[in-house]
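Run folding on both entries below.
>entry_1
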Amino acid sequence: MRISISDLAYAGFRFNEFCQLDKAFGLEFFYEFGTRPYWDTVLPRMTCGRRNGISMHGPCVQVNLAEEDPERTYLKIFLDAFTYAREIEAEFVVVHTNESLPEGDLLDLQQRVRRKLQVLLALSEEVGVPMVIENVGLRPKGTLLFDREAFLELPQRFPTAHFLLDTGHAHVNGWDLADTVRVLGRRLLGCHVHDNDGQGDQHLYVGAGTIHWEPFFEAVMETNPDLRLVLEYAKLPCEGMDAHVAGLCKRFGI
């Protein structure tokens, strides 16, 4: 397994702390949380000497694919993101199916999102950067558009698409993480790895919530040992990220 660290906990001037992490870790960064001049300045520092790749979290505040968008603004925003991802040789771009859930028939909203995903897949192929479709939405907040059954239909609908499993979102929605990894198999290019108490998307570090992690890591090792694991924490472990990851590797054999 290949381990990356999300910049979620390193926003602003904390990027300097990221620069001090073990160079064996890759980086995933939230593109829309900075301007191009910012990333042109910061990314070379964050990736200097790193040996494990870079990925981009695509726009998730500016864009909600479930909303009506007669001007196709989403397409312009993602074109910019994909183009920049190509420039920096990103491994993939993460795409959310939806954020909030607008009013409307659930099946109609799903169809709207699927149409836009088809357009974005064509765009990503044209630009030459893979996109991965992430499971999002939280049942307790009423924002779940694609439940597990509907989400796992997407690989059949989009034969060339790849996917990313967010463990925190899946846990809140009651998904079996290990079984989901096995079903997606090699179509799964990455995972956002973080914990919670099963009630909210808290982005806790592994072991700080109620996820039972052993089956998840066993399934990954069994079906996709080269999977990209992105530790997407909102708060750093008390022992520090380097020591935390070393503990995970020892505990789970990754």
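>entry_2
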Amino acid sequence: MAAKAKATARQGVRRDRNLKEHRHDSYRLFGKLKEPTVCSGCGALFHKGRWTWGAAPKGAATTTCPACHRMHDKYPMGLVTIAGSFKEKQHEQVMGVIHNAAAQEKKEHPLSRIMAVERRPEGLVISTTDTHLPRRIGEALKHAYRGELEYHYDQEEEFIRVNWTR
């Protein structure tokens, strides 16, 4: 007769599982918002599970959208740094390309916005509320004026740095 082996504490099921941590983003809304909901800051409308632009229906709930929350806290998700002498020579044209790219992105995605444009020692720095807008601005500058474009994406923090030089 075969004897049944009894599992001891050292054998059998492992209890030290590797668990993936959830990404912590204090600006992400957990759960579903009541639909329709309107942002009290910018007027964006949360409808059918996403933020859009549109007229708010009567009796819509109000909240602050993640982009307005980031702007209030001055906590960007992306930075575009423009370096080189070209930005000074063609300042108005460069700013026009930047604002046009931002306007196109904002038309489709209300949470994609420019937070601030600052002059710093490293160059002109543009902070944004999402990770897609810096890439779009960098590509628009490269398409319009060539130059060198670099991306630095930090996946752990969901942050992007875009450097354009000419």
